[in-house]
Each structure stands twice: as C-alpha cells, then as structure tokens.
Amino acid sequence: MDERTLCLEIRRRGGVARTTSLIDAGASRHRIEAAVRRGLAVRLRRGWVAVPDADPDVVAAARAGVVLTCVTAAERHGLWVMRDDSRHVAAPAHAGHVAVSGAVVHWAAPPTPRHPDALVDSVENTLVAVARCQPRELALAVWESALRLGKTDRELMSSLALPPSAREVCEAASLFSDSGLETLLPRRLRWLRMSMRQQVWLLGRPVDLLIGDRLVIQIDGGHHVGAQRAADIEHDARLMLHGYHVIRVTYAQVMEMWPSVQDLITGAIARGLHRAR
C-alpha cells in the first residue's frame, strides 16, 4: 500500500483510523510513518492517525480516547435532535480524566459492544445514551426519528438489556410522528384529554395534527420554503374553505415560545373551532 492509497484508506474510515487496523488492511508501519513525516497524515496519539482535514469532533474523540454519543452522535446518524452546542462523548469505565473541552461525558456501559475503531457510537448505544441524558419528551422525539427512518426497530431495541429510562421510551415510541416536533406537540397537549390524530389525510395531503374534527395544527420545519411553502399555503386555503381551522407554527415557536403556541391552540378550542359545524 503506497502513501496515496494509505490516505484514501484513512478517509474511507472517516478520516481517522487506528494504525493496527491500517496495518491489517495492508499498510506498513514504515508507510504510515512516512505519511506522517510528509504531512499527508497527522499522528493524534499512540495508535491513531488522521488526514489533515479530518472532522475536528472525531479528531478530538480519538485524541481523548472517547466515542461521540448521545445527541452528538444522533445528529450524525441523521436523527432529529434539538439544537445542542455541547459535545456528548462516552468514556470507558476504566478511563481517568477525559480531556475534551466542554464535553458532556457519559460513563455508563453501552448495551452493545463498541468496536475498537469506533469513534461515533452505534444507533442503539446512541438511543440509550439519549434516554439516560435528555428530558423524556426530547428523548422520545429522537427515538421516534430513528424508528421512522429505519435506523433501528423496536424489536431490536426491546431485545437489549435496556436501563429503565430507555425501556420506558422504547415502549412509548410510535411511528406516527413525521418529525421530532410532531412528537413533542401531541405530548404537550395530552392534558387537554381531546381526540388528537397525527398524519391524517385531508383533501389529498396529510396534516401534522388534527384536534377534534376541525382544528388542524401544521408545523413548519426547515424544508418549508419555495415550492413546498407555496403548496402548504395552497393546502391551508383549501382546508379553510372546507371548514377546517388551521394553525401553522414554526420550530422556533414550538421550542422557544411554547406558552404562546399553547395559548393559540387553547384559544381556538375555547371558541369551538375544533368541532364540526
């Protein structure tokens, strides 16, 4: 394996790799040392190298001997997460001080073994870490995102030795929510004790939440722009012409201004806008 092929192999492994794994793949210690001397690779610590432009978070994890987990790993797996500027890492139980600046460190043993090469936790370990760490409604949103996207399934998760927090979230998770926000909304409104149905088809398209017979709640995510936005507005208009009342809210409103959103919804219910006329 020449130095160019060596660098391609490191990139194939995410930009950071263990030297023993590279040697198993056909590299020699001499080639690895030569690549480091020439600046084609960077030595992070004993047994680990990276390409110079490798992901900083993954590099930091390799340097510290930890694995990215919880909401940090969930985002990398493409799952819905609430914005979180902290890095969450998992450390081995025998590890001493973990030198990752500003990181939230998870010490619990994972339900599935971590491969020695892994720097980002598996989906299963990530979900368990989320259940241990995050408020229940946010953990549920992440789990439902994973189930909806097919990243794992309830049967597999149920078969693991889950801690009580993860077992509870696993049993509560459903596939009806189309996004994390759609998980949060009905849960925050359960106290109303009213009929609430998710992803109901009305006039040819699904709506995010139908309260009673006529009150439609639509949630705008980041993709509600351009043609999608125009289609949403057109559908809202047709719904209202057919006697539905539509309340459309954004991510920021749900996550940062929930009392105002709740007032809008309860005000509509107080006026009977959820009932068929």
Automatic annotation (TrEMBL):
Taking every annotated instance into account, which residue ranges of this chain make up the domain DUF559? 194-266
In its UniProt record, a GO molecular function of this protein is: endonuclease activity
Q: Name one Pfam family in it.
A: DUF559
> Can you tell which superkingdom this protein's organism belongs to?
Bacteria
Record key words, sorted: Endonuclease, Hydrolase, Nuclease
* Protein's name according to its UniProt entry: Very-short-patch-repair endonuclease
